[in-house]
Write a structure and sequence with these properties.
180 residues; alpha+beta; Aminopeptidase; 5 helices; globular; binds coenzyme A
Length: 180
């Protein structure tokens, strides 16, 4: 068990810290356009994916966030990942992210895994607020927000540039007081 980034379990899943040796799995996700369609990064090869692995380490070393790999409890197969970044200690808040390889979509895995790390964060990381930033067209992700009781706070128009296009983003949040 690693400080602030322990192994967690749910009914169907083992949720354990991301390790350097997960790079092949991370590359598989970040080179798949279905996964990266609404993410801010993608990687063309394993070499470039090292940047993502460095980012996970940087977050942890600086206590800016923690990421977990989501695995099937029985087969130990890696399904996806979820975690936090951009911790702001003074405001007791963080930003969340999550993804699954497409073959694992539609089985409720993210609601289960992400719900568990939110619980962990509220109970153990002194957090009061978890934010999610979602593109309005990402309907699958918005359903996760509904399932976990995140509240839509507003839409920032053309707040990000993806390739040559400006895109809107929506802010969602979950507060400790509303978590159940
Ligand atoms: C967003 C994401 C993590 C959802 O995870 P999930 O575990 O599949 O979520 P759920 O099983 O609860 O399904 C959510 C919705 O996806 C849709 N869905 C289900 N199976 C699907 C499939 N095979 N293909 C496409 N969409 C599907 C359904 O509308 C479902 O809603 P429902 O449960 O009301 O029927 C997943 O779609 C993903 O990895 N997307 C790419 C990465 C991403 O966008 N991350 C979020 C960035 S903000």
């Amino acid at each position: 068990m690693t400080e602030n980034n322990p192994i967690l379990q749910t009914e169907r899943l083992i949720i354990r810290p991301v390790e350097d040796s997960d790079i092949d799995f991370v590359y598989k996700a970040f080179s798949n356009p279905k996964v990266t369609k609404f993410l801010t990064v993608s990687y063309p090869d394993l070499e470039a994916t090292k940047e993502q692995m460095e980012w996970y380490k940087h977050l942890k070393n600086k206590k800016l966030g923690y990421w977990w790999v989501i695995c099937d409890k029985n087969s130990e197969k890696k399904l996806g990942a979820c975690g936090f970044s951009n911790h702001q200690k003074n405001h007791q808040k963080t930003e969340a992210g999550y993804w699954l390889l497409p073959e694992n979509w539609g089985k409720g895995y993210i609601a289960e895994a992400f719900g568990e790390i939110c619980k962990y964060a509220f109970e153990n990381l002194s957090l009061n607020r978890i934010e999610c930033i979602i593109e309005p067209e990402n309907s699958n992700s918005k359903k996760i927000m509904d399932k976990l009781n995140f509240q839509l706070e507003g839409r920032l128009r053309q707040a990000e540039k993806v390739d040559d296009d400006f895109v809107d983003i929506e802010y969602y949040s979950l507060l400790k007081q509303d978590f159940h």
